[in-house]
Write a structure and sequence with these properties.
Blueprint lengths: L3 E3 L6 E4 L5 H18 L4 H17 L1 H12 L3 H25 L3 E2 L9 E8 L2 E5 L7 H12 L3 E5 L5 H14 L6 E3 L7 H6 L3 E7 L2 H14 L2 E5 L4 E5 L5 H13 L9 E7 H16 L19 H16 L3 E4 L14 E4 L6 H4 L6 E7 L2 H8 L9 E3 L3 H10 L6 E2 L18 E2 L4 H7 L1 E8 L2
Parallel strand pairs: 5-6, 5-8, 6-7, 8-9, 10-11, 10-15, 11-14, 13-14, 15-16
Antiparallel strand pairs: 1-2, 3-4, 4-18, 9-17, 12-13
Helix pairs in contact: 2-4, 2-6, 3-4, 3-6, 4-5, 9-10
The structure holds NADP nicotinamide-adenine-dinucleotide phosphate.
The site of NADP nicotinamide-adenine-dinucleotide phosphate (NAP) has 31 residues, from helix 8.
GO biological process, one term: tricarboxylic acid cycle
Protein name: NADP-dependent succinic semialdehyde dehydrogenase
Organism: Speluncibacter jeojiensis
Amino acid sequence: MAIATVNPATGAVERSFDAHTPGQVEEKIAAAYTRWRSYRTSTFAQRSAWMVAAAELLESEADTVAAVMTTEMGKTLASARAEALKCASAMRFYADRAEGLLRDEPADPSTVGAVRAYAAYQPLGVVLAVMPWNFPLWQVVRFAAPALMAGNVGLLKHASNVPQTALYLEDLYRRAGFPDGCFQTLLISSSDVERVLRDDRVAAATLTGSEPAGRSVAAIAGDEVKHTVLELGGSDPFVVMPSADLARAVEVAVTARVQNNGQSCIAAKRFIVHADVYDEFAQRFVEAMSALTVGDPMDADTQVGPLATEQGRKDVEDLVADAVAEGARVLCGGSRIDGAGWFYPPTVIADISAHMEMYTAEVFGPVASLFRVADIDEAIEVANATSFGLGSNAWTADPGEQARFVADLEAGAVFVNGMTTSHPELPFGGIKRSGYGRELSAHGIREFCNIKTVWVGE
Ligand code: NAP
């Protein structure tokens, strides 16, 4: 894939970039490794000052970087700005908390025959981050903020369609005061990832993206015996039971499905509704989805912009066409919006069955699948009938049902009566084919640490 900014709202190539040469990549790996050997001994206070400076810069530049993100991948300007501010708050979170989250954990020395014994969290080294375009700042920052605060350094291989955002991030950390080499962007293709990952100076990798990309990076890292974190796709269930606040459930259902123009890993994608409230939910949901304003993502009135790539829209079209050919019913939307750009309307599809591709695939666009179920057992069965296990959402006022969903939904997160989202205070990650490892919270900052056992005798 060419490294270029192609505006999804127009299809126009705005800017192209030459990939870094093997010599340039070598220089960057060498700079990262050399820098890490001194950076690892910097104090939390020093790193924290740099991280707060980065947050301040980002806050002051939120409008500018938001316009870059919107131009590169089509999210609405308002959501791009919100993303920039969320990144700044995650930076502040780790600037404030890293030292406490990585404090030595003492063991009772008498039980292990020591004078002193504890677990220490030490940085691993150079971490390669392979990142997707859908939240082009957030996906990177939720790795970089904890990793840099822990004393690691980062090499970013961003998605090929968001090079300007990738270069902005490198520049941001440099201007904030982080020493050269702490955070660098590699303009390379996905086929060049293997060479970087196999380099002895690179200690570990994190990948957010699709299952094939994750499988490839994990296989290479496995061969090199290097630690990885994988944040892969999802097909989150959104279950609605009879006791739910239906008005609120519908409102969140719409936002959860069309956020980021339908291209979020934790978007609710499959709407599983109890038969007692199915008809009412379906009617209100279709009305609300149909009423959304689709258009230029730079326009303040737009609620849904274009899909990020031409191929992405084709993938969505193919899944819808397959479902319709197999007997599914389109309740609204269902065919591309003609004209320039890669627009696809908010769409609701009913009568999905297990043999359709859409039943198991991740639909990365504003297309909702509706399922009618007879009871909570069937709801959980349908919810879990996927190889993914990222987020999940359940709507019920019944405490017994809430406990059942928490216990039985196969996912890395369950949100009850509210929208699934990421918070710096809470861990984020998946099970099954949605990946492994966790980002954010204490778990995220400890992923790229050597948890060193320290035992000191007489
Ligand atoms: P993608 O095609 O897998 O790309 C993600 C990144 O991996 C890009 O930098 C890409 O580079 C690179 N890449 C692709 N194939 C690779 C390979 N074989 N080896 C090494 N690197 C490779 O995914 P995407 O289309 O950008 O993003 C959408 C996917 O990400 C969805 O499945 C979504 O659910 C998932 N996602 C998951 C999370 C999560 O937290 N779990 C969050 C956001 C998105 P190029 O651009 O150069 O191809």
